Amino acid sequence: MKLNLKIWRQKDAKSKGEIVDYPIKGIEGDMSFLEMLDILNEELINKGEEPVQFDHDCREGICGACSLQINGEPHGPDRLVTTCQLHMRKFNDGDTIVIEPFRATAFPVVTDLVIDRSSFDRIQQAGGYISVNTSGNTVDANAIPINKHAADEAMDAATCIGCGACVAACKNASAMLFTSAKVSQFALLPQGEVEAVDRVQNMVRQMDLEGFGNCTNTGACEIECPKGISLENIARMNREYMSATSKG
Amino acid sequence: MGILDSKVPKGPLADKWTKHKNDINLVNPANKRNIDVIVVGTGLAGGSAAATLAELGYNVKTFCYQDSPRRAHSIAAQGGINAAKNYQGDGDSAYRLFYDTIKGGDYRSREANVYRLAEESANIIDQCVAQGVPFAREYGGLLDNRSFGGVLVSRTFYAKGQTGQQLLLGAYSAMNRQINRGKIQSYNRHEMMDMVLVDGKARGIIARNLVTGEIERHSAHAVVLATGGYGNVFFLSTNAMGSNVMAAWRAHRRGAFFANPCFTQIHPTCIPVSGEHQSKLTLMSESLRNDGRIWVPKRKDDAIAIREGKLKPIQLKEEDRDYYLERRYPAFGNLVPRDVASRAAKERCDAGFGVNKTGEAVYLDFAAAIQRYGEEEALTNGIKNADDKEITRLGKAVIEAKYGNLFQMYEKIVDENPYETPMMIYPAVHYTMGGLWVDYNLQTTIEGCYCAGEANFSDHGANRLGASALMQGLADGYFVLPYTIGDYLSKDIRTGAIPTDTPEFDAAENAVQERLNKLMAGSGQHSVDFYHKKLGKIMWDKCGMARNAEHLQEAIDEISALRADFWANVKIPGKAEGMNQELEKAGRVADFLELGELFAKDALTRNESCGGHFREEYQTPEGEALRDDENFKFVSAWEYKGEPKDAVLHKEELKYENIELKTRSYK
Amino acid sequence: MSGLIKSSIARKVVMALSGLFLVFFLGQHFVINITSVIAPDTFNEWSHFMGYNGLVQFILQPVLIAGVIVHFAMGIALELKNNKARAVKYKQYNGGANASWMSRNMIITGLVVLAFLGLHMYDFWVQEISYKYIAMSPEEPTRYLEETVHKFEPFWRTIIYVISFVLLALHLWHGFASSFQTMGLNNKYSAGIQTFTKIYSIAIPLGFIFIALYHHFNPITH
Predict the structure, then answer these.
(1) Interchain CB distance below 8 Å, A124 and B173
(2) CATH 3.50.50.60 domain residues, chain B
(3) pTM here?
(4) CA distance B557 to B596
(5) Cβ contacts (< 8 Å) between B124 and chain A: which residues?
(6) Which one of A55, A78, A124 has the shortest CB-CB distance to B176?
(7) CA distance B508 to B511
(8) Tens digits of per-residue pLDDT, B166-221?
(9) Which CATH number fits domain B13-263+433-492: 3.50.50.60, 1.10.730.10, 3.30.43.10, 3.30.750.200?
(10) Which residues 133-162 of B are in CB contact (within 8 Å) with A?
């Protein structure tokens, strides 16, 4: 199929960017979206132009490196996939596809479609862990039975890949889904209880400091999340936060 | 025995590690504050090592090319992690895990290392649960297990089909805690370009800041490489696009021996290649073989009809299907080790029974499992006289709970519903058992340079068993390396900080700069991918699942010529200053072009078939691998001498004192 | 406490609580108003009570006004911060693909409702205050219905009321249910709560519209 790509080009963080048109043909439905961009880049290199830079790594939907706002939606029009898993069969011959970086003040553009998501790392560093040393001197793994439903729910929250689609989709560029997923994972497990009060406060404080917006419960994050992380996690974090602040 | 000293401690196998830990020198906490350690790579091995070293009190600098340690490719491991916990009471023990791993590796790994791995395996699970890793649980609240290929017990712990992700996020969270304490400085989007040796000891690295393009000097008292495998030498593999051999290869060029480069694991259950545009392959977890049955049509004309789209697999009657693994290996059936399953698939497809357009795919069928689980569910839920539809519905629900995310992934890629029609799979490059040679302490042949995880060679011999990579990465990182490295660092307590304004750093930085200039100066005929794809094709065709002397020699010549062409004619747009992803790729491919040749040379030297290394000249009449313990019971460790063809082979003889060498049989 | 209000979650909680308070008030307001159609005497009686009861006038009324101000001020503060959170806007943003119009445009519906509130306050509250405290007119327990019906005589005012109530419905449609999520209530009862909030969001504004139209088409003639 033939496509008309409109891609955001930006030399570096300081430069002003713009949308550039790239017509492309010979695209097949079996190709992934990133393979389509590979083809474009191969063409650009052969023409002596600079290829479009974008983040990607595992190309199987788990590392969270790939991003891209495609026709106004993070990871494109398909649901429960990352851009690397989005296949061109979701598009039609002759389509115009607008490709932009995920946009948020807390995700500054590095170049072209590459963004800096280190704000997510800093939120995790503020408290997204259980403070046990890795010496192995802990109790036996089966010493504390954990309710299967709680364990499964914790797992569902823990599947977050940190791609930032939640922020990109949110009209307020809020990172509540991301932050709440980690808070929830530990809130649901007995191991996480000890530090619960500090964890939620520290993580939320860092989230605010990074300049993410506020949640207005539009639910866009949940719809666009490639891992289907539920809004319930945000409600849980709100509860945890209120109870934590009341405890001081 | 040559110059390789494995430093395996004396004494009975089961006591070696404990005794060794008691004997090695320790560094007192006050002195640890004055010692710096560089960790390159932040996957399971690097991330866990960095966290533990920081907890112990060392100053740690981590480096990764990704934008966050959380994206290291360990994250993509699906199925699970082995541990000799014997929670199922099915007779498991550290010895049995040790035995399975040695046997699975086709007797080409070091006994003492593997035993230590088996011993530490149980600790990993305790540790990860304490960190909040949400492993799957049973209704009673205790941990659940599944089984993997090549073993007869259930010892695999898992977190849905995302075990690697959960374990990596565990290690990442341990790192984050140390970053927050200021004990780890993490350099993300940084790539190690060279290692700096001072007086023969690893004392730092030269790294490129991938955002600004700046070349940076970083010094330390020791350098840990945990940079994963080199499967991307095949271009198409299940590795991440960025996975590369650069750090290990740079260390190799500085004096670290490279061991068993030809030992590569070709994983039997991957989604088949769909066309020329393909950039990478996707694994379908081995855990699927717990429930899926692998088959091709019995008759060739049926296979042809299927390929042409005239026949649907579900239309084929039971008696017209060839469940070739169950037929050939009745004892292990669909759960034979990966090398065996991969070769069997290749054998059927080469014989003309492949089932997709390219003829390179076999079926992985869940219909029987859906039926079996459906009946079980109906029974346990007290549904009497359930009809077929109801049973299928119940069965599908069970399968979905177990493998839902994998099935979804398959459907997204292939556009077929695997609940309704069997999956198509084909082997793909997945893991490299070979890597930098290390002794029992995980030190390479460069003093002060350590290597952990997939990047080293030590534990998996010629074939790795499923769910053992995660085990090795974490055992190395959490429980082995942080202690063995102390023995070395204890001699450095008076050294003080290592300066970076020395001739050694100058020379290394200049070399890096020159290499970058040379890459940028190519004549501009072809893109980096052009060369990478060519290299991959040579590797797959001539150094893949089946190898022979003639092809291997051809591969050596072709790769050597391709390398020369690459340096003369590669085209890299843009500049070396600032982010330049083509330049990043070029540096990596340049090293693959050297490694690939050494790989072929190693395969050519090893005149036997063992594990993932199958030489067509050495097979039994039934087509099984024919190992030669008399002449090849050694680790090949290659010393760099300029061109790969000049590399010098050193042998580490393998001694088996606790295990009897047998012909591996899964019949 | 000031630290608490600084955090994004605390602000949201303030938004939710003030919102819920206003929702509750709205219901109460409706119950009184509907009597103007079905039981005019009761309407006059209740209106008089509300107008002259000390508790209502000097405690509840200021609280209500404070509620409106807090809800409004916080809403503006959040909107400004949210705007800053995406300094460079998308060239193409397909918000409709993943979120409802109502949820994305609370600021628009909110500002319209606020503007309406201005008119409404002018129409009733200002007049009432000037009647009672400036003109010092005597208590007259039966004047309320006639004053109310009289207001709806002009077509333009009725139409403004109708449009405002439609926007109020849109505001409530997202806001009412959303406040429960903010308060951390997302569990097995949520589906029921959601249904209730949706019904409420439609029914109450519709009721107000009915009242406005009823009075417009049934003027009191002397």
Answers:
(1) yes
(2) 13-263+433-492
(3) 0.96
(4) 11
(5) 136
(6) A124
(7) 5
(8) 999 999 999 999 999 999 999 999 999 999 999 999 999 999 999 999 999 999 99
(9) 3.50.50.60
(10) 134-143, 159-160, 162
